[in-house]
Design goal:
This protein has 540 residues and is an alpha+beta fold. The chain is 34% helix and 22% strand.
Length: 540
Amino acid sequence: QQQQQQQQPEQRQETPPPQQHAVYTIRVPPGVRPGGAFVVEHLGVHYQITASDPPREDGAVECWLPAPPGHQPAQPEVEIQVCQAGACRRAGSEAVLLEIEELGAGLLCLSVSAADGCLGACDEAPNAIVVRRGTEVLQSRLDKVEKTAALVAAATGATPNLDDPALRQRLKEARQVRARQQAREEKRWNGAMQGLAEQVAASADESKRLDLLLELAELEEAAGQWEAALEHRRELQAASPDEPHEIMDLATTLGKMGRVREIDELQRLAERALSDPDDKELLEHASRHIADCRVDAARSASVGAAQEVERPIDGYALWRLASATPVSRHSALYRFSSEDRTRGTPLGKSAGAELRHVTWHLTMLARVGPNAEGPLPWVERDYTPVSTWMDWEKGRCDILIKTYRPGVATGWLRELPLGSAVHLSQPMQTLDVPSLVPDSSALDEASLGHSGVLLLLAGTGIAVAASVLRHADPASCFRPPGRSRRPAAPPLKSPVRLIYACRRDDVLMAPEIAKWCSAGVGRARLQRCVLAVSPPAEGQ
């Protein structure tokens, strides 16, 4: 048989191309009840079709059937693009995208995608644009499922069905989860916890409630709210008294709080819960973890007794306000200093531990007390420093901040005494350089650079110009630690132009702009600068 197979020529079967399908509107025959079945003949084949339940007003039903040969699928007439930039992502725009995809499922006239870049309405996030025949219409504040459904209806003429309570709840929960995930990634703990305690209290499903309670305890611990985290850890451990991971998590929290005696009780509890010989390895692992927590607790208790210690907040370091220098009628330069070694570094690292050139920003916690942004006593604000990465490495940071009236965070900062403690986050990447996009890992080599760069900036946004231009100067661009005195090859070689808009009573960084304009080639240099000055605000 093997010889016969070797002598026969190889038979190859060609894979037929996939058959095109199309949506057909079919009238339901008289007498067929909603949800009932009937048979139709299409292209010589019989198909069983299910009538709509509830029935449509026109007495028809839409279904997918094979298209005739030569059929050309219809192109979408309307496109909805959902913004995925920072403010919109924090407001749950990933879930908005999923909502539109689900609510618009089956509508051939509709195409849904993520927008290319920021849509510019950050104060009204989340946002989307509707594109029809080349015309773009901005849709803002898509903060409820009903608004998303109204957007789909206005764009397509087809009203999504929101009568299913399970669908509404699923979409609502998806939006909440996405917003929390984004806030956790950015270590914005107040935003991540917003509304979470209410969700825990309202959950009727005990398993889901415990999952939410665990997430709440983790967030509270990361934010330094140890008492609240301990209360919720105890509740979780009581719900699963023999679960070793709950015992170890509780020990971790007690270790931070210096509760040595209670940790000893957890060791005895673990020994009772894991008394089975098959649990020997797990008991050894739990015992090692509890012993480490006991050491942490003893250290925390001794330090706490000796001095008042600021509780650590995950992702943040402790800084002090060193000076506040007014630079215009509305803005001031705030200088912060720190000896906290947990402050991190702006120097980006790629997968191969190579230096990655990026612009960077940070988050400040403004301790304003109770607020509408979450349950924690602070609000979180992002800033781009005007000082260099070398200043940061030495424990110095300068931030240009405009005072808004009323402004929750800036009003607090304006009244803050010198020497006061301020939490600043570890530096976070804003844009890759020289591509100037958030993530250039998917770009090919030809797309990394540009023939030219145009910066459109306003007000305190001029700080971004400093952040970008430093990557064009060998004296200020990133270089590996230990070689800070050697000149480096700057990654940004494209000519940079600037259009800067400001009010006449709030012109910022004018000396720096003049310096950039007069700098030589190969330095932090502006090829051209347009200053667009508007009058002061009315009454000022």
